[in-house]
Amino acid sequence: MKTFAALYTAIDQTTKTSAKVAAMREYFRTAPDADKIWTIALFSGRRPKRAVTTTQLRDWAAEAAGVPLWLLEESYPIVGDLAETIALVLPPPARTTDRPLHHWIEALRALHVASVEDRRLAILSAWDQLSVTERFLFNKLITGGFRIGISRKLMTRALAQASGQDESVLAHRLMGDWSPDSIGYSALVEAEETAAPDSRPYPFYLAYQLEAEPEALGDPADWQAEWKWDGIRAQLILRGGTHFVWSRGEELMTDRFPELARATDFIPPGTVLDGEIVAWKDGVPLPFARLQPRIGRKTVPKALLRDAPVILLAYDLLEQDGTDLRDSPLAERRARLDALMRSLPPDAPVRPSPAIPFGDWPTLAATRAEARAEMAEGVMLKRRASPYLAGRKKGDWWKWKLDPMTVDAVLIYAQQGHGRRANLFTDFTFAVWNGNDLVPFTKAYSGLTDEEFRQITAWVRRNTVQRFGPVRQVTPEHVFEIAFEGIQPSPRHKSGIALRFPRMVRWRHDKPIQEANTLDDLKKLLDAH
């Protein structure tokens, strides 16, 4: 555990990509294989299931530290993280241990079948032999909340350097439905692979936001344009007589979209499609809000299947007849995709995402302006000669999204942040006018500079009206411009409205609260959307 804690500290204390890669590379060269496979799993989001509740952890930590529970609870919002709060409040360990990472993970997994008292004794014993950083990581593993500030791309790069394997091959190997229980480090990373599991997806190719005018991309004839759909990016895999659906976040979602099972009736095995799952009814896409209730469900009730049926709008063909097509240029892959789609019946659950014809950039700009009417977020631009790469690469794939919608709103509640922002108020609730009343309608926690967060924090501390646990009600005095990508009705919110991806874009020092937007303004945006 000491070696893993040292790796975590090295990554956490630097913002330099090269330093993070170097720390991981050295770790993967020297750590035991059992620790390496678990580190790969943890860094790619495969965490152990929660072993105990946070309530139990609080109680046991207060007991071990000899402090009243209320004092630990008061410390939590100051520190900003429960795992760190517990690690800091506990007394120094009575003993030390050199037990490796995989030992502690197995110990945590054993707690699932232990009695509550045995769980308590095991965790108290662990706390009594781990350093502060080791305790913090152990607590994160207990709660299933472990996160690390690196991308999978960086981890794969470090692993490739440490193992001597090709980075693109490793990126593919690390995809799919595997766990340290099903495969060891050597088999996953080093062994010559003879046959990949049928379910394994390809690493997704991700686009950058277009920062300049599209004219900077050169000749329009070199580019393919298509709608940027507001759905779930997914790969539909047809192999071995069955199908698999993977999200961009590498979550297996096959059971959540049973409509796509019919694809095996029309599309031959050995096919992998990249596309967007959208709610679709009567020949048109539905708003993302109709799809959202299906995302978190393991099983889908009949009412949702009826109200929000889905299709896959396919825009790329990654595999055909079992042959990997990713190195072929987009123009060839698209031609193959169109030929495949033409053979499907009209009621197939897969359809081609139409390419947008355009002869020059102003014509495409005019089409892009109509994106919301098409239930899209903007357009995608892809170089026709581009291969299908892994991860986010600049140069060949761009997303040209519409400018966000904005409203001016009044700050009414504030809450402290977490991690490095634990001592700042960064999580805010905003309201708009409904007659003479301010009605809360959204929360936002990003978009300001660190200096602005420090300024608003000082103001919140001087202007708190009431406290509700960690939340402070403040004097309505400041207006912020809130940007968002979408708006939809929501019976769960007092305002009756919910925003998609809200964030602060400007602190309106120039505007009095009386000039903030109204609930009627939001409803007009809703009707227009």
Task: Produce the secondary structure layout.
Elements: H1 2-12, H2 17-30, H3 33-43, H4 54-65, H5 69-79, H6 82-89, H7 101-110, H8 116-127, H9 132-143, H10 152-163, H11 167-173, H12 185-190, E1 205-206, E2 208-209, E3 223-229, E4 232-239, E5 242-247, E6 271-281, E7 284-285, H13 288-295, H14 302-307, E8 310-320, E9 323-324, H15 330-342, E10 350-352, H16 361-368, E11 376-383, E12 391-392, E13 397-401, E14 405-416, E15 425-434, E16 437-444, H17 450-462, E17 464-468, E18 471-474, E19 479-484, E20 486-489, E21 497-500, E22 503-507, H18 519-528
Parallel strand pairs: 1-12, 2-13, 8-10
Antiparallel strand pairs: 3-11, 4-5, 4-6, 6-7, 6-8, 8-9, 11-13, 14-15, 14-18, 14-19, 15-16, 17-18, 19-22, 20-21
Helix pairs in contact: 1-2, 2-10, 4-5, 5-6, 6-9
Account of the protein in words:
The chain has helices at about 1-10, 15-30, 35-45, 55-65, 70-80, 80-90, 100-110, 115-125, 130-145, 150-165, 165-175, 185-190, 290-295, 300-305, 330-340, 360-370, 450-460, 520-529; strands spanning about 205, 210, 225-230, 230-240, 240-245, 270-280, 285, 310-320, 325, 350, 375-385, 390, 395-400, 405-415, 425-435, 435-445, 465-470, 470-475, 480-485, 485-490, 495-500, 505. It is of the alpha+beta class and about 525 residues long. The chain has three domains: about 1-145, DNA ligase, ATP-dependent, N-terminal domain (DNA ligase i, domain 1, Orthogonal Bundle); about 205-400, D-amino Acid Aminotransferase, Chain A, domain 1; about 405-529, Nucleic acid-binding proteins (OB fold (Dihydrolipoamide Acetyltransferase, E2P)), CATH 2.40.50.140. Strands 4, 5, 6, 7, 8, 9 and 10 form a seven-stranded mixed beta sheet that branches. The longest helix is centred in the N-terminal third of the chain and has 14 residues, at about 15-30. The protein is globular.
